[in-house]
Amino acid sequence: MKLLDTLHRWTGGLIGLVLALLGLSGTILLYEHLWIAVPGTGDPLRGDLSTVAATTERLMVLPGAQGIIYADDRFGLHQLRFGEGAGAYANQSGELVTRWVSQRERPELWIFDFHHHLFAGDSGEWVIGIAGLCGLFFVISGVILWWRTRRTFQLRLWPKRMSRPAIVMHHRDLGIVAAPLLLLSVVTGTMMIFRPFALGMVAPFGPVAETAKALDPPKYKGGPLTDKPDYTAMLTEARRRFPDAEFRILSLPRKPGDPINIRMKQPAEWLPNGRTTLAFDAATGELLGARDALKLAPGAQAFNMAFPIHASKVGGWAWRIALTVSGLAMTMLGSLAVWSFWFKRPKPAKRVVKKAAFAAT
Fold first, then answer.
1. Entry pTM
2. Which of 3, 263, 291, 361 sits most deeply, having the most CB atoms within 10 A of its CB?
3. Cβ(220)–Cβ(282) under 8 Å?
4. pLDDT in tens, 288-337
5. Environment class of residue 107 by beta-carbon count within 10 Å: exposed (0-12), middle (13-18) or buried (19+)?
6. Which of 286, 304, 284, 287 has its CA nearest to residue 295?
């Protein structure tokens, strides 16, 4: 038990600040649709084919346009993507309302990048994934360590004093209350980073090999991108294939031979941008293949639920409030763990050297 306690304290002291910042940034992102100050964010969704097609044709002719994330019920603007982090918001009539040349100009974008990549791309994802595994260890080991002190349980939102013993007691008692939510947040977040971990978590839903194959996107080969793609025809075919689905993302090829991809969300899908996909030849507009997310392997469908749970894209306000509690608890637990470990460590006891007393002769 002493070894477990030592590992818990040292790991928390080293990685606690990362977890605290992830908890804080994640909590802020839960409410991004409310604080983005751009005209049109609250516009009602106009998802009919004619409106979406006309807007797409208008936006995709802009120089450098690489794709569109379409408006939805929560956010009433389309997000147009350009290269090197540039982008724009456009209303559902195709009129630009704001542009940026770097994601640093938009707080919702750089906070998202920090939360998912720590501003360091794939390397940052690895750090976050490792922090997630450490968070899983914290929750499990914390429950075990708390059990010894369960009789002294007192729920406080803040430590009684900013002394190390008071912080440790608060840390244990707050941690045990928040443990179920923290466990769910950490597990779903780590699933999106480490594929082997994710496959292990969804293994009860079906064979791992079948799930892994279903999660890999199909590969298609087509011609070079034409100067004037017929987006209306592609969107029309997509709506014909999936009449009840919403248009979510249109992406141009990243390299010659790649297709134009359209992602849609069917009503039964939890993932906000859906996993129902269609691939069109970039040269001819011919449909190369379509994938129904509701017909994927059960394990893949279970994996697709991780992000909506993690980011409160399902469950309404009740679940968003629960995740807010989880995020703030992670922020407090991580920051106070670092504070108590590095700045409130007990001072080593001074050695008292006793002088020998000599009797007077």
1. 0.89
2. 263
3. no
4. 999 999 999 999 999 999 999 999 999 999 999 999 999 999 999 999 99
5. middle
6. 304
Amino acid identity, position 65? A
What are the residues whose beta carbons fall under 8 Å from the beta carbon of 141, sequence distance 6 or more? 4, 7, 8
Sequence-ordered list of residues with C-beta below 8 angstroms from that of 83, at least 6 positions apart, any chain: 64, 66
**182 in Cβ contact with 326 (< 8 Å):** yes
Per the listing, tokens 């909506």 go with: 308
CA distance 357 to 2: 40
List the structure tokens of 286.
Answer: 């011919």
Counting every residue, how long is the chain? 361
CB-based contact 246:264 (threshold 8 Å): yes
Q: How far apart are CA 117 and CA 125, in angstroms?
A: 5
Distance CA 146, CA 333 (A): 14
Rounded to whole angstroms, what are the CA distances from 282 to 68, 194, 252, 258, 312?
Answer: 16, 32, 8, 7, 35
Please name the helix (run of DSSP H) or strand (run of DSSP E) that holds residue 246, with its range, or none.
Answer: strand 246-251
CA distance 154 to 172: 10
Q: Rounded CA gap, 258 and 207, in Å?
A: 30
